[in-house]
Amino acid sequence: MSETTSTNEENKLPLNGRRAIPPNYSNNEENEVPEMEAFGLIPRGFNPRDYLRVVDIYMFKDPHELNKQEHHTDKYYNPKLIVRRGQAFQIQIDFNRPYRPETDQFWLEFLMGRYPQRNKGTYIPILIGNVLKPGQWGAKIIHRENNSIRLSIMSSTTCIIGKFRLYVAVLTPFGILRTRRNSETDTYILFNPWCQLDAVYLDDEKEREEYVLNDVGIVFHGSAEDVKSRSWSYGQFEENVLDACLFLMDKAELELSARGNPIKICRVASAVINSRDDNGVIAGSWNNTYDYGVAPSAWTGSVDILLEYYSSKQPVRYGQCWVFAGVFNTFLRCLGIPARLITNYSSAHDNNANLRLDFFLDDEGKVDTRLTKDSVWNYHCWNEAWMTRPDLPVGFGGWQVVDGTPQETSDGMYRCGPASVQAIKHGHVCFQFDAPFVYAEVNGDIFYTRMEKNGTQVVENVDTTRIGQLIVTKEVGSDGMMDITEEYKFREGSDEERLALETAVMYGVKKQSIQDTTYEPQTDVDMDFQAQKAVLGNDFKVTITFRNKSRNSYTATTYLSGNIVFYTGVTKSEFKKHSFSAKLEPSSSSSFDIVIKSSEYMADLLEQASFHFFVTARINETGKILAVQKAIMLEIPALRIKTKGELVAGKGTSVIVEFTNPLKQTLENVTLRLEGPGVLRTIKKQFGRIPMNSTLTWEVKFTPMRPGLRKLIASLNSDALRHVYGELNVQIQKP
């Protein structure tokens, strides 16, 4: 007796006074589906074999077959059927005898998760009909031959994204007979940017090829005056990546029934991409020490990170903004949401979204690093995802900002977005999610403020053009740079820009007007700061130019402060201080050169080799201060990649990576990484050291899998030198 009760107990759902069934947020878990579901007592002579029985189901799931071809899923390294929602696909069912529509009745069942429910979209019975209605579940027979039938199945355009289990159910007088659980018939359903009724529909084929199907991209970094680029392998079609992306939604505990909604998916993904507060995918580190992990600059793509997280379930160390954005882009494209990686140059990280970044000057006019808390990132990367926004008024669909880098909390978690780019441009920051934060990142003003002894603040200079001065993404169909600044803001100084700002202020963005402070700039003298191209390990010079437009003679006491900074604009150390007095003749220009020696900066250099120069000049006759700041990137030598022999799919060949140490020191702890989506999985190799001026050569043998134009990406990482990249486009021939 006791044994039977215990088994009954196990079959019962755990009692919970609040819900009839536990939350359903694992795509992986399953329930047991009975093969025979009896309607009552079964008569003694009943034999299931007397009725219509399914012998085999054929899914047409190979990359060259019609389902994957028509649904643009033939690139996924995944043996199961992968289709996009709202578009018909075909399967074939073989019965034990010819199907007789007058007497036989069967239907299909798609199930997801542990507690499938019809009203939640996790249990989907599909009856066989005569017509398929666009955007609704349905099935019809398109071909009958001997014991086989071929079905065309239509999925709903709001269907949940994920992996479904398929059963075929046959009705008999005494009960329902189902096929056995067979993982070979599992079906992944993804978003469909090719379908007009889908929330992620994108109408341009070239854009779909770029934003959904391209598995390599470009990350722009450096600074607005000196844009640098590197390739990143998204690898959304690589083996196990799709399962890893579905696992992220399980990890974020997103209810299965919400997974047809791209807004919700983006919102939870922006939290789970970073490890803050939910043990998400990547642990961020900005402090230049990366013990027990990989330096952010060493990654060449997303695949290693996602697969490591999928297997270990522990945050992968370490990332910075472009790593979070690269992995997020893989996640979005993998699920079928059009996505692109964005770089915002001179991005304001302002702690209280008041559109004002304060740089405090001391009495002499030098920047006081003690008091200055706000920082300007040389650049910051985030993503845009394409979708309709039925939760907002008409006109705010299209590109939405989502950001996986942990900066500020939103509704209690480190996440950001989706925020409509259109709403940000027009100042409608009241529309969810996190629009004020993104608005401040691209629209702040820099105030140079001097603290008087009695505590009053005197604004000496305001820079309205620097923040968000350039916003870019990769061009469609090529590796060039596309300037999208005007999608985020109107031209500086235009009426529309002022109106957008007033709108943003009306909706709660805090802005202190300049009228509140006494501010009269020196208008008749301009100061400019330029640097010659600086190569890592060499001396270079910077030039300060004054233009005196007045008829007066002036003298300017000038301070230059050179700082080694993290790319987030936070100073590590000041390596150069220089002051001089400049005589400014009436109506003329005068230039002053300052040499920066490599011996001054090499010891403290950080991985992105970026400097931040502050120049302040006090006009002695008027007491007014001119101020300018500029980020400068050093040229870091590239890796050279070349291939040996011809490149034919399925045939062994080799690639050679070379690097010459440009520094006047030995490089220690050198690691090389090489990968190419669709060509070779990441290979790592450690080299102890590279003496100065010597060249390292690494040969890798590999067999390319698929023909077509592909890209090889390599990175080198060492204690003294990071952010060394190389890439090569390779054309792989058909065998």
From TrEMBL:
The keyword Transferase applies. Residues 1-26 are annotated as: Disordered. Tetramer of two A chains (F13A1) and two B (F13B) chains. Residues 313-406 form the Transglutaminase-like domain. SUPFAM superfamilies: Cysteine proteinases, E set domains, Transglutaminase, two C-terminal domains. The keyword Lipid metabolism does not apply. This is Coagulation factor XIII A chain. It is found in: Cytoplasm; Secreted. GO terms for cellular component: cytoplasm; extracellular region. Ca(2+) binds at N443, D445, E492, E497. It comes from Regulus satrapa (Golden-crowned kinglet).
